[in-house]
């Protein structure tokens, strides 16, 4: 089992509360980089000096994940919450979460089927109907365990299963973070800035600040992206396919990849015999959206590890896609002057 | 101006793929400016040097399009939209790829109610019979654009991509006719406006102008039972009051009105309730840049037969010239 992936995906880091995951990434990156710093938005930036030019290349993966935040504690000790980042309420029902610094255990409750009216069974439950049960009997009891404003992350165990597949929470984008750590093991001709960004899930907020500070000549974003190679989805609606290699983005809702970079990534994949796929969907966005329009403009491209059931407590990815993404990123960087 | 407009609207240049149209505009403008450069995102910046205030004129050179996302076993192409492509404007439309390959956009015909047609139920037919045949001609990520050609009817011009090649023509024509200006004038042909005014953002940041004026198309309220809007085709260029992205800076707006009156150019005031232009990005750049918009009244925007009026374009050039020839007192 990949112990680092286990640690990275099980660590808490809901958008705005990236402290725990940042500490882990910081100690890992410190062993590989020349300098590690944290900027005002909380982005972690690992710098590795180049052997030749002073050219700057930015690698980017966001370290935050979707989750919940407690906004009300009822008299009966039940917690009400808002989602942080986009989460389908259907994936929340009956799930376990860990709340706040003390990682208080909680369950997302729903009225039992026996007690539901026939109509209730047919309609999708809304987030505001859900609540977290932490086993407290009163507001006072609850307040001893949690505070208003505490974040909650999914309580999910990382697990390899089946044929080379893994499941866990936050594969989007801890897989990308891990790819960045792998890339930091090498030294390149140019200066490398590996950025682990904050608050991507709430509107790509950290990345633009990081890019503005660094002013790189290009940025490569490594993501975990949607994958819909499942029954009931028309072939042409399948964003990516598991096991077919890293997905390369031409365009999504927030950026149009630089064509020279995309061509070079494809050439690299072909040359190095690394499988790849073109992402078929133009929906969704990522840190490239903020980076490419930062300052006077920055060339960007995006490669992603396909993840099924993204933004849920249990996403599924293929380890070969992850390895191939790491190889592709490293080979691409080695080909940059 | 007609021949230049015809040339530009027939030029390929969907958002993110502005190479061809950029080269075309560069050729048209280079002899009338002091310097031409291309920035990181691909904006074309033509500069007419002068000692005074920096004035940025922006017209976007990109157009909307259809990006290939999937090729099926029979050779039909599925697509995502690049910018504001609408179902109702695309059914059975002719489109063309960069290399001239022509296709027809249509939809899954088992759908009975036209309201149920969504873009993901549509496809492009390039006449091939198999996946292999299509894959020889196009690949995922290739983009097609409307290909309705150019026509003139009763003093009106009709074609795809008037949005915003008409604006590009105004900028080029202004550069050609501008004899002298107390200002340093930047004619900026921006990229990716249709994807969210992206090129304007980075070019405005780099140029840091004193004032910004976007030149773009706007809608009209002069067709049968149209939504109310006080802009009519043929009644002069429109001076923007507001749209979704900007409240035009009062001083820029006043400047445009004053210069229109001085030049004897007819004009109309515009309030646009849907959409925005490059000015939306420019005015929020750095410490804020006073910005406004000169709009060309256009019918059937984001279809393959957008219609503009020849006199509105001519008057638009006259207004831009007057603005650039006089001092700017703010």
Explain the overall architecture:
The complex is a heterodimer of chains A (337) and B (330). By secondary structure, chain A is α+β, with helices and mostly antiparallel strands. Chain A has two domains: 229 residues, Zn peptidases (Aminopeptidase, 3-Layer(aba) Sandwich); 88 residues, Elongation Factor Tu (Ef-tu), domain 3. Helices cover 26% and strands 26% of the residues of chain A. Chain A has nine helices and 17 strands. Chain A is globular. The model of chain A has no long low-confidence stretch (mean pLDDT 95). In chain B, the strands form three sheets. Chain B has an eight-stranded mixed sheet with strand order 1-2-12-3-13-16-14-15, sandwiched between helices. A six-stranded antiparallel sheet of chain B has the order 5-4-9-6-7-8. In chain B, strands 10-11-17 form a three-stranded antiparallel sheet. Chain B is built from eight helices and 17 strands. At the A-B interface, loops of A face strand 4, strand 5 and helix 5 of B.
